[in-house]
Structures are given as C-alpha cells and as structure tokens.
C-alpha cells in the first residue's frame, strides 16, 4: 500500500464541553484556542461570548420546561422594546442548548456555538463532515425567528428538508416557535402556511420556483411568500450558490407542438463522422460543421443552403450533433417514463422539472427516439445568485468552502469562516493510484474493494456516472461481494438515505454516484435511528394500512441487515395486534411515516435524556414496567391517529428496539474502528477540488479513523478534456502499462490541473453573473410593477391607470409640437392621441379649437401649473434604471431628449395641453367604466377584470422581452470581431430594450383597457 498522509482537523485542537485537554469556556487548558485565533481573525472576540453562554448553562438547567419555554416570549418582548438580537444572543443560545439537551438528547459543543454565531453574522461557517451542522443551524434560526419576520433553512433535497423539520422542529416547537416544511408535492395552501411559520425548511429549488410563481399569479390571494425575504441559512451552501449558481431556474411553456425536424436532424447527425464532417470541443461543449460536413448535410436534406433563405436546418443539425457528442445516457441523463431526466453533475441526483434550453433537450429526446416536446418559451427565470441576494441577511454551512472563498466574497459578499473541529481528524489520505487505461483502472478499483471487504472494513466507492456505478456493481456481483448501489436510477435513489446511513456497517460496500446521500451522516457501525425507523415502518404499515396499499419493504430489510431478538419481535407483535384490533387498516402511508418518525424521536429522547427510571427499566429489560411508565408520559403528537393503548405498546417496543440497535451499532462501530474506519475510494477526479474533498470528508468524522484513495486513469475526463498533450506525455512516461503508479509528482500535476480548471469555471461564472446583473435589474423593475398592480387598492389601481394615460398623452404632445405655441397643430396632436389609444373620436371635434384658442388668448395661464412629465410611470423611472446600469453616457438616455422639440421656454404651454387632453381622455374613460359597470356587472368586477388584463399584458410583454434578451446575449458575442466589448454592447442594448419594454407596457395597457370596455 502506498504511503499515506494524516489529515489534522482545522485548528489542530480537541474541542468539547470540558475534560482534560479541552476548553470548557471557563478556563483555557490548552493553547490551541489562542493559536487558532491568532491565525483566524474571523473568530477573534467570539470566545468571550462562548464563555458567557457556558456561564449561563447551570442556571438554565434549573428552569422547568415551562420556564424555559417562557424565555421565548420574554425575548420577543425585549426585542419589541428595542433591544437588539446581538444583545440577547448569549442567553438565547443558552436556552437553545438546554432545550436541545432535554428534547433531542444533544448538547451543542462549544465549536457549534461558534458556528451558530458565524451564521447569525451573515457569514459562511465551514464545518467538516460530521461536526453537526444541522444542530448548529438551530441556534441562529431560533434567534432570528424571534423577530417574527421568518427564517428559511434551505436544504438541497426534499428528504433533508423533511428530516430536519421533523428532527430539529421538535426543539423549536418545544420553545414555542412554529415550524413547517415545504415538499415538491406541497399544495398552494400548504406552502402559504409553511412560509408563514417562524421557521420554514425548504429546498433551494422549491424556494426559487415559489418566488417565480408568485410573480406570475393573477390573484393576490394566491401569493405564498407573504413576507419579505428576511434571513436564510443555506445548508451545503457551496452546492447551491456555486455549483448551481450559474444555472437559472426557468418556468417555461410550449407555445406550439414541434414538427419532425429534430428527429430528422438526429438521423442525419448519426451518419456524420467526427473530424471528417464536424469538429467537437468537449471542454466548451461545442460542435462545428466542416465544409465537407455542410455539403454532406445539404445533400442528405436536399437543400441548397443550410443557413440561408430563412432555413433553420443549421441550428437543428448542430443541436443534434451536440446531443450526440456531449450529452450521454446514464452520465448526463436517464430515460424514465419516456422522459429525459437530467442528472445533476454535482450531486448525482435527478433534477426534477428541469430541461436543457436552446433546443438541446429536444435534440436529446430525438436521439433517444422519444416524443419531442416543443421548443420551450421562458415565462420566468432567475439565477440563485440573483435570488438569494434579495435576502436581508444570508448565511450558509458546508464542509468545503475555502477553495471558493474569493468567489463567495466577490459575488455574494459572504465571508468563509473555518470552524475548528470538535476532535482531531485522523483520516489518512493515500496518494492517487493512476493507471494508463480505463479497463486497468476499474480492475484496480475492484481489487481495492475486494481487499478491504475481505477483512470487513466498510468501503464507499464514489463514481461519476450511472454507467460506471453499474459497471462496478456487475463486477462485484460476479465475484460474490454483497453491496448497495446508489445512483440516479429511480429504484436506487428512492432508498438514498437508508443506503448511506448504513454505509459504515461491518463489511458494508456502497457504490454511490458523486455525492448522492450528501447530508446523511455515515456512522461507523451503522445508524440505529434508521434501523429502528425501517423496522417500525414495516410493522406499522402492515398493521395500519390495507395490504394492497402497503409498500414492499424487502429492499430496506436487506439494507439494515439486522436480526431482531425474539423478545423484541414479541413486543412488536403485541403492539401490532393491539393496533389491528383497536383501529385496523385506517391510516395512509404519510400518516404512518409521520407516526414512525415521532416514535423514533420519542425513543431517542427517552434513551438520551438521562431519565434514570426509564433507563434502568430498559437496561433490566423490564418490558411491562416500562410500558406502564410510558403511560404516564406525554406520548408522540400523532396519538389522535392511533388509540392510546396501541400507541403505548408501540412506544414501548420502539424504546427497547432503539436500545438494542444502539448496542449492535456500538459493537460494530468498535470493530470497524479497529479495522481503520470507513475507506473511501474515488474513481475520478472532479473539475473542482471541492467536490473531491466532499467525498473524502465522508471518512474520519468526529475523530473516527478513516482512509481515502483516488484510483484514476489517463482516460478520465479531467485529463482527457483539460489535461492537454504536455500532461498526458508526462504521465505516460511515468506509468506502467498494466499496473497503477502512485507519485507525489503526479498528484502535484493533477492538483495544478484542477486549479486551472477551477479558475476557468470561476471565470465563466463571473462572466455569466455580469450579464445576469443587467437582467436582474430589469426583472426587479417588472416584478415591482407587477406586484403593485396585483396588490393595489381600487384607488391605487385607478391612479396607475391615470398616470399611464397622462404619460401617453405627453408622448403624443412631444411628438407633434414645435416652435411657438401659436404655431402648434393641436388637431394633429389629438389625432395622434386617438391613434395611440386606438379610440377614434374619443376627443370631441371642438377640442382642438378650444385648446388652440386658450393658447392664443393666454387664458391657459389661469390654470394650475403642472410639471411636464417624462415618459413612463412614477413606478418605472427609466433614469433610475439607467443609473443602476451605469448608462449615464449611453445614447439611449438622450434619444428622447433629442426627439423632443419642446424647449424649456414653452414647457408651461406644453404642460397645459397635456393636462387638458388628459382630463378629456380620463373623463371619457371613466364614463366608459361607469357604463360598463351599470350594463354588465358592478364596479368591483370591472376593476378586477382590468387588473387581470394589466397583469396578463405585463406577463406577455416580459416573456417576449426575455426571448429578446436571450437572442441579444447570443448575438453580442459576435461583435468582438468588430473590436467591440460584448459586455458593454449588451449593457447599452439592454438599456434600450428596457426603455422599449416600459413604453410598450404603458401604451398597450391603456389601449387594451379602452378596448375591453367597448
């Protein structure tokens, strides 16, 4: 075995809640703390707060449950009286720590208090795997929820959101806060209720889509985000803000069905040969037809020109070639239910409701012989970069953020603060083992797994694709090594948490794509909570659900692989019999799952709470006595769905089952530690060191032993796509033809290569963000207008309509008056107004003459003076938008001024004309509204119709604008050939597009409102 290096935990110290060599907050027994602060100025000064929290601990222990819960109302009152969150932080953290000890059986370590303070400050806490980030989040979540503005704890998948809401939610509810969770299948009413809670657990995608959907509703009652975006804590923040930060969330629709062009293009692409007919760049994911390729395609299609004469065949052919060359089944996507489902390259999970844009998804559908969905039109979009910056305060947690600290600061203004580990990290990282070919590499991986499995050491193998994971699975099955497979395939992904939770068992072998299962701890010896949950789920479902609706749990039984003693089986059988006799099969699967989770939490609380009487009964295996004792306790909240007697028996069984599983896991854990802990095998380096570090971090949690090795080949994507000839030749010279080689020189070369790739991707993300900033400003402008229309009162809505009418009239005056007022052709102005409104005859025939007479006689001076308005509404100041876009010098800002012939000298006269015409148009408009209300329905219904019409028009215009901006984004890149800066060109043209959008919305709203009243 190659030499290995031992990795020490950040800070190099041992941290905890007292004891030899630890810091207990009252006195320093080791100089590590001071040395750490000397290097990490970000934590300087927080040690005093930790000491203060620890000093409060003894007092908190003396409080009853009711007194501890009453602290929440006390804190809220103090905040209302003007005290700040920072002032009550020490006491609030002490309350949470004590409540956690009582409810969860978990006490926050001192380093977890540090992590909580960093999160409260609106920064990123970098905490290693297994350091208890989920528990850390309860501290700032509780503190910031006291203000009543809401806190969102953001996770990367539905399972983690539900798990954390149910687990940590016990703590928050105990303290009197409301907690809720949002899932992919949550209804609109459930989402509204959840966002109204003090603390909401939700995935980043659901949160982003809810924001977009809120900006598409046509009735204010349908809004689910009722409050401002106050404070978010993002778990796995690097995954959300970096990995997914550049990919926009899109809500799209299909305007019309697509024809057979994609299928025909796919057929032709399959006949074309790389280098002869086209060139392909795997790094940039581009293709380009050669001259011979263009001729071949034109011949196959029977067309003279591929790109000219309005032909779109060129685009279809290129999309088909990209689908063929750069988008591979079981690597980038899977086919499920005759649908293409995208695999997230960073997590290995399927990305629900996601589609590639620019025709790629349709091209892949055609390649797979599926029905092609029509080209998608974007109805709403936003990137996570833009969305999360709208929060008043943002923070995040992850084990791997340091490599991206500069990007976090430059893009989000978030500092990365490394938090010291609670115990030493003693994981051993072995240098990479490199093979010359793909085949020899996989043989080396299989041998490594077999060698470790032969002594019972648990092994976790990380692969980068579904295909590779299944390749290794077939080999292991062939040699008789039992294993669990976790990838994006539905059958495997459904058991993600269960598979990962037992990956630390003696003899376990787990194959996982990328970091599927991230967020679930791998405990050496196994996870007793998950074992108990699965056993209870099997028994409760069979007792409380109809047999035809009860799921098949045979796969889960194989995962936990535990033999239950006869006496515990007897307890479970009696509980089942009681449940079946008292209520029978009456519950749904969701109700059973909720009850199981509450029973598991209850059992964990009993065993971890330190209650001597119940622990003594468990230790002596006095089943009946404990059951009687449980009858005096507050049982899980789901007791209404199950009779008390049956619930009592299940609670009794759960406690003893949890105790037994805990003993099994503890024994196996000791054995696994002697074998070296979890062994992690990586099978390909990622483009980012951070993703590789996430895989390494699964081993060696909380001071446990562990080891890692990466087994690679020269044919891996990193080397093949990014390595270049120099790297390949260096490695080829060193490598043996059949055996793997370890070398510090090779590791150094690989590290340098990864850094260069990281810089390349960082540059792409920065460039994308620069472009997105302009669209973000425009999106905010439109959404503010839309929200005003949606939520305004009747008077406010009328005021907006009146403002738009006046602005429309002002535009007509500007277009048609010049010189001395006596020379103005008011008839021409009136015709322009009527044409603009599409309302011929709306101005009475005598109107021009009357205004002309007032101008000539000077009687207009007796009217009240008004400022001559600029184009656009008060909500939509173009100048403000242009200033944000740094466009003060842009020609667009001066176009209207140059067009206007009205000098400052005659602006009072022009203002008079605007006022007179506006008054006449408004009078006619109001008469039509009143007439419609009388002849059809009431005034409120008319106003509702107008609100609906305005929202629909804003949405349609915004969708067209998004399409235009997308085309503009693609076209400006070509201007570099004209020695122009594409970003500057985009800045100028996007400002012009915004001005056009605003003016067109204004004009068309008034025109459509008049039309609807006819």
From TrEMBL:
Give the main location: membrane
Gene3D superfamilies, alphabetically?
A: Helical scaffold and wing domains of SecA, P-loop containing nucleotide triphosphate hydrolases, SecA, preprotein cross-linking domain
Ordered alphabetically, the record's keywords are: ATP-binding, Membrane, Nucleotide-binding, Protein transport, Translocase, Translocation, Transport
Q: Does the keyword Iron apply?
A: no
- Coiled coil (residue ranges): none
Residue ranges of the SecA family profile domain?
Answer: 28-743
Q: Name one GO molecular function term.
A: ATP binding
Q: Name one Pfam family in it.
A: SecA_SW
Stated membrane topology is: Peripheral membrane protein
InterPro entries given for it?
Helicase_ATP-bd, P-loop_NTPase, SecA, SecA_CS, SecA_DEAD, SecA_motor_DEAD, SecA_preprotein_X-link_dom, SecA_SF2_C
What is catalysed by this protein? ATP + H2O + chloroplast-proteinSide 1 = ADP + phosphate + chloroplast-proteinSide 2
**Cellular compartment(s):** Membrane
- Quick one: a GO biological-process term for this protein? protein import
Q: Where is the Helicase ATP-binding domain?
A: 114-273
Q: Where are the transmembrane segments?
A: none
PANTHER family on file: PROTEIN TRANSLOCASE SUBUNIT SECA2, CHLOROPLASTIC, SECA INNER MEMBRANE COMPONENT OF SEC PROTEIN SECRETION SYSTEM
According to its UniProt record, which protein family does this protein belong to? Belongs to the SecA family.
Question: What is the protein name stated in its UniProt record?
Answer: Protein translocase subunit SecA
> From what organism does this protein derive?
Chloropicon primus
């Amino acid at each position: 075995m190659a030499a290995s290096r031992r990795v020490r935990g950040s800070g190099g110290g041992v941290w905890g809640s007292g004891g030899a060599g630890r810091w207990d907050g009252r006195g320093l027994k080791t100089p590590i703390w001071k040395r750490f602060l000397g290097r990490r100025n970000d934590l300087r000064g927080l040690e005093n707060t930790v000491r203060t929290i620890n000093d409060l601990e003894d007092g908190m222990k003396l409080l009853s449950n009711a007194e501890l819960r009453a602290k929440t109302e006390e804190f809220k009152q103090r905040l209302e009286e003007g005290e700040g969150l920072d002032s009550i932080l020490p006491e609030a953290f002490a309350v949470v720590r004590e409540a956690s000890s009582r409810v969860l059986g978990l006490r926050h370590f001192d380093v977890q208090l540090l992590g909580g303070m960093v999160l409260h400050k609106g920064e990123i806490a970098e905490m290693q795997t297994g350091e208890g980030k989920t528990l850390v989040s309860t501290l700032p979540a509780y503190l910031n929820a006291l203000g009543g503005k809401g806190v969102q704890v953001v996770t990367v998948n539905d399972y983690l959101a539900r798990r954390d809401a149910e687990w940590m939610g016990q703590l928050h509810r105990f303290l009197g806060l409301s907690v809720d969770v949002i899932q992919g299948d949550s209804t609109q009413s459930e989402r509204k209720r959840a966002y109204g809670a003090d603390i909401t657990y939700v995935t980043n995608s659901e949160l982003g889509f809810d924001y977009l959907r809120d900006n598409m509703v046509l009735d204010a009652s349908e809004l689910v985000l009722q409050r401002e975006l106050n404070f978010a804590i993002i778990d796995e923040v690097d995954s959300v803000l970096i990995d997914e930060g550049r990919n926009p969330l899109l809500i799209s629709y299909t305007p019309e069905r697509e024809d057979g062009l994609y299928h025909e293009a796919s057929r032709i692409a399959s006949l074309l040969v790389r280098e002869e007919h086209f060139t392909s760049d795997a790094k940039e994911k581009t293709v380009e037809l050669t001259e011979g390729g263009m001729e071949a395609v034109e011949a196959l299609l029977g067309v003279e020109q591929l790109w000219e004469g309005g032909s779109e065949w060129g685009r279809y052919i290129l999309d088909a070639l990209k689908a063929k060359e750069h988008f591979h089944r079981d690597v980038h996507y899977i086919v499920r239910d005759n649908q293409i489902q995208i695999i997230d390259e960073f997590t290995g999970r399927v990305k629900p409701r996601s589609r590639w844009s620019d025709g790629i998804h349709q091209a892949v559908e055609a390649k797979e012989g599926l029905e092609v969905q029509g080209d998608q039109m974007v109805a709403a979009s936003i990137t996570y970069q833009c969305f999360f910056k709208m929060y008043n305060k943002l923070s995040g947690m992850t084990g791997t953020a340091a490599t991206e600290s500069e990007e976090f600061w430059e893009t989000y203004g978030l500092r990365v603060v490394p938090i010291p580990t609670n115990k030493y990290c003693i994981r051993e990282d072995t240098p990479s083992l490199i093979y010359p070919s793909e085949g020899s590499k996989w043989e080396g991986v299989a041998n490594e797994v077999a060698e470790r499995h032969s002594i019972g050491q648990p092994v976790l193998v990380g692969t980068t694709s579904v295909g590779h994971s299944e390749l290794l699975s077939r080999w292991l099955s062939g040699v008789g090594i039992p294993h669990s497979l976790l990838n994006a395939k539905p059958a495997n992904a459904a058991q993600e948490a269960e598979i990962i939770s037992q990956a630390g068992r003696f003899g376990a072998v787990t194959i996982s794509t990328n970091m599927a299962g991230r967020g679930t701890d791998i405990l050496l010896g196994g996870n007793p909570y998950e074992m108990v949950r699965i056993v209870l789920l099997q028994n409760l479902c069979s007792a409380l659900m109809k047999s035809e609706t009860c799921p098949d749990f045979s796969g889960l039984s194989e995962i936990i692989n535990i033999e239950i003693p006869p006496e515990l089986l007897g307890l479970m059988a009696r509980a089942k019999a009681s449940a079946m006799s008292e209520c029978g099969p009456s519950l749904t699967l969701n109700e059973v799952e909720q009850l199981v989770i509450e029973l598991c939490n209850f059992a964990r609380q009993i065993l971890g709470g330190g209650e001597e009487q119940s622990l003594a009964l468990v230790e002596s295996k006095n089943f009946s006595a404990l059951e009687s004792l449980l009858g005096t306790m507050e049982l899980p909240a789901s007791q209404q769905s199950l009779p008390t007697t049956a619930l009592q028996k299940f609670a009794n069984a759960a406690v003893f089952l949890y105790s037994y599983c805990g003993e099994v896991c503890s024994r196996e854990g000791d054995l696994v530690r002697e074998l070296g802990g979890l062994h992690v095998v990586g099978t390909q380096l990622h483009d980012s060191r951070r993703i590789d570090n996430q895989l390494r971090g699964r081993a060696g949690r909380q001071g446990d032993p562990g080891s890692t090795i990466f087994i690679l080949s020269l044919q891996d994507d990193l080397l093949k796509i990014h390595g270049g000839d120099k790297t390949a030749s260096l490695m080829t010279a060193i490598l043996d033809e059949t055996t793997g080689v370890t070398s510090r020189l090779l590791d150094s070369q690989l590290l340098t290569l990864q850094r260069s790739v990281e810089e390349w991707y960082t540059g792409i993300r920065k460039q994308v963000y620069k472009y997105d900033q302009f669209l973000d400003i425009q999106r905010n402008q439109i959404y503010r207008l839309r929200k005003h229309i949606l939520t305004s009162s009747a008077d406010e809505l009328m005021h907006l309509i009146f403002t738009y009418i006046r602005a429309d009239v002002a535009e007509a005056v500007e277009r048609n008056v010049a010189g001395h007022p006596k020379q103005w052709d008011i008839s021409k102005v009136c015709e322009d107004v009527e044409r603009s409104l599409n309302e011929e005859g709306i101005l009475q025939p005598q109107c021009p003459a009357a205004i002309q007479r007032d101008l000539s006689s000077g009687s207009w001076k007796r009217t009240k003076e008004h400022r001559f308005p600029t184009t656009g509404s008060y909500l939509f100041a173009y100048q403000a938008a242009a200033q944000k876009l740094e466009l003060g010098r842009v020609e667009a800002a001066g176009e209207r001024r140059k067009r206007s012939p009205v000098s400052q000298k005659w602006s009072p006269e022009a203002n008079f004309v605007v006022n007179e015409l506006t008054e006449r148009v408004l009078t006619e408009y109001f008469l039509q509204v009143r007439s419609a209300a009388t002849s059809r329905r009431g005034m409120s219904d008319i106003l509702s119709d107008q609100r609906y019409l305005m929202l629909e028009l804003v949405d349609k215009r915004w969708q067209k604008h998004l399409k235009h901006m997308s085309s503009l984004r693609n076209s400006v890149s070509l201007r570099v050939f004209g020695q122009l800066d594409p970003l500057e060109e985009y800045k100028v043209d996007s400002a012009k597009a915004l001005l056009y959008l605003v003016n067109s919305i204004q004009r068309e709203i008034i025109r459509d409102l008049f039309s609807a009243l006819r």
